[in-house]
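Good day; I would like, with your permission, to put a structural problem before you. What I wish to show you is a protein chain and, alongside it, a tokenised description of its three-dimensional fold. Please examine both parts with care and let me know of anything in them that strikes you as inconsistent. Thank you for your consideration; the sequence and its tokens are set out here:

***
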Amino acid sequence: MIRLLIVSILICCTLIAEAQNKRRKSDNENSLEGVPFKERIVTGGGFGLGFGSTQDFISVSPMIGYKITQKFLAGTGVTYRYTKYKFFTPAIKLTDYGISPFLRYTIFSNVFLQTEFEYLNYEFPTVGTETTRKAFTGFLAGGGFFQPIGNKAALYVLALYNFSYTDPKPGEYSPYYSPLIFRVGINFGF
């Protein structure tokens, strides 16, 4: 009976030591200790373009981030949008701009979670060719998937939910038609 107890204790100690060793290995694999600053920088973003008989649209959304660990990225995105509505005479030209600091954590393989705070200064038409500008803030969270393209680039698809979204009242405008936001873009690492 004593031998069985001693063998059981030794097996438990061996299993605990092996589990700690595996955890240390995975922590080291996640660490970027000794990696140069330049190799921790990630850039990318999105670009949109559309021309039509009633509307022209240009959107530029660059992004820069810093890898804190192999799985954890902190960064910020900047947004600029230009829209020209041609069905008014004269045409209405609107510009929107904003900034979005974010945190992204890769949970496994190529799947990640992201939280983001967005500040967006949004211009919208009011009466005739008059426009009004309003600031919107939002807390967004969701997840996405990235697919590496070569050594230093990756395509990403991201779905976010805007927890600050409210349906616009009659006569009001909103930069979003829904609390769901979908993005597609490319990230580049140096």
Remarks:
- The first strand starts at residue 41 and ends at 51.
- Confidence is low (pLDDT under 50) at residues 4-27.
- Residues 2-30 form the longest helix (29 residues).
